[in-house]
Design goal:
Blueprint: H1 2-41, E1 48-59, E2 71-72, E3 75-76, E4 79-88, E5 100-107, E6 113-123, E7 131-134, E8 137-140, E9 150-158, E10 169-174, E11 183-185, H2 189-240
Parallel strand pairs: 1-11
Antiparallel strand pairs: 1-4, 2-3, 4-9, 5-8, 5-10, 6-9, 7-8
Helix pairs in contact: 1-2
């Protein structure tokens, strides 16, 4: 019997002494690692431009052009579109005014004309950035954009072709940023459903990690109590002898 106890003692030692610490470390890594990976995955310098809204406010069918006339500054108006764009520093490093070798320019097709543009919101609200229009372009002023800063720009554009899913291009030159900036389109409803499932998955993983940590802490408390009990028993035996 003593031999069998000696054979099983290493496994008992692993289950009671080592496994709780391993569970605690794995649980802590499960919480910290996703945030570290997300930060490392983001490039040092990056600027994102996302198309949030591309909606037609006024659109006249060619078959009724003889009966209906809509003008802007005495010129016939075919359609009027509302374009909303988010400009975000999605990198890890700030981009200051000096970092912009050239201002950011949003350019629409040559037949289109921007009649109004404004910065509707910034995050944080204190970003001193403005815009000006010129024909089919919108020129943004240079301003410091820290990591995560966002600028929401709203524009009214006339004679924008309806078939354009991405109605503009981005022209800018930034220190440390190579290659052109592609305009991203805001996620569709299907993408949002996918994002919800990804969120549920992440919450599930966090709950499992939390349970693992709770288990590890509980086992360590039990182990400590057992050791205290053994020490007290040993001290009582010594006093008795």
């Amino acid at each position: 019997m003593d031999r069998n106890r000696r054979e099983h003692k290493p496994w008992q030692h692993f289950l009671t002494d080592v496994l709780p610490w391993i569970s605690l470390v794995i649980g802590a890594l499960g919480i910290i690692a996703p945030f570290i990976i997300q930060q490392l995955d983001n490039p040092e310098t990056s600027l994102g431009v996302t198309l949030l809204t591309n909606s037609s406010l006024v659109q006249i069918d060619e078959s009724v052009l003889d009966d209906i006339s809509v003008t802007y500054r005495d010129q016939p108006l075919g359609n009027l579109s509302l374009i909303k764009v988010r400009i975000e520093n999605d990198g890890r490093a700030p981009i200051d005014a000096v970092g912009f070798s050239s201002p950011l320019i949003l350019e629409f097709p040559s037949q289109a004309e921007v009649i109004q543009a404004r910065v509707s919101r910034t995050s944080p609200p204190s970003i001193p950035i403005t815009c000006r229009i010129g024909g089919n372009t919108v020129v943004m002023s240079k301003a410091l954009l820290n990591a995560g800063d966002q600028v929401i720009l709203e524009m009214l554009v006339i004679d924008l072709p309806v078939e354009y899913q991405q109605p503009m291009t981005v022209n800018v030159r930034i220190k440390g940023l190579s290659g052109p900036i592609q305009v991203k389109v805001a996620t569709s409803l299907a993408d949002r459903k996918l994002t919800i499932w990804e969120t549920i998955r992440d919450i599930y993983c966090l709950l499992l990690t939390a349970l693992l940590i709770v288990y590890a802490i509980e086992r360590l408390i039990v182990l400590r109590k057992k050791r205290l009990t053994v020490l007290r028993s040993s001290s009582s035996d010594l006093e008795a002898t």
